Amino acid sequence: QVQLVESGGGLVQAGGSLRLSCAASEGTSGTYAMGWFRQAPGKVREFVAAINWAGDALYYADSVKGRFTISRDNGKNTVYLQMSSLKPEDTAVYYCAADARTRAVREGLGDYWGQGTQVTVSS
């Protein structure tokens, strides 16, 4: 069982930056792809970014390409989402996901999910 804990959310002005972190429970074994999703009020959850176990395959939603960067540190069992040039439309609860299959993460079908962290971008 993998437990995921997100952190790093907060309130930021448009054009600013935030870095989200998602730490997997200690002792997590196996190789997991990880990713980020977000859900704004009244909207469906949407894919943001994903990364495979090795960190050499990265995937992004068109809406965040060039602004967000996903990375991971397997030694720390942690995945990061560096968000820059933030816009008010980026406001949402951001969720971390993990699964042994990269495709499952990308499609929102991951086995493991965190509780989410709120990101609010003011105009």
Would you give an account of this structure?
This protein has one helix at residues 102-106; strands spanning 4-7, 10-13, 18-24, 33-39, 46-51, 58-60, 68-73, 78-83, 92-99, 112-113, 117-122. The protein is mostly beta strands and 123 residues long. A hairpin with a 4-residue loop joins strand 7 and strand 8. It is globular, with a radius of gyration of 13 Å.
Tally of contiguous helical segments = 1
Biggest β-sheet, characterized?
7 strands, mixed
Instruction: Give the terminus-to-terminus CA distance.
Output: 40 Å
General shape: globular
Number of strands: 11
Q: What is the N-to-C order of secondary-structure elements (H for helix, E for strand)?
A: EEEEEEEEEHEE
Strand content: over 45%
Radius of gyration: 13 Å
> Mean pLDDT across all residues, rounded?
94
Low-confidence stretches: none
Percent of residues in helices comes to under 10%
Please state the structural category: mainly beta
Q: What's a quick, concise take on this entry?
A:
With 123 residues, this protein is mostly beta strands. The chain has one helix at residues 102-106; strands at residues 4-7, 10-13, 18-24, 33-39, 46-51, 58-60, 68-73, 78-83, 92-99, 112-113, 117-122.
Write the layout of secondary structure elements.
Elements (H helix, E strand, L loop, with lengths): L3 E4 L2 E4 L4 E7 L8 E7 L6 E6 L6 E3 L7 E6 L4 E6 L8 E8 L2 H5 L5 E2 L3 E6 L1
Parallel strand pairs: 2-11
Antiparallel strand pairs: 1-3, 3-8, 4-5, 4-9, 5-6, 7-8, 9-10, 9-11
Based on the model shown, name its key terms.
single chain, 123 residues, mainly beta, 7-stranded mixed β-sheet, globular
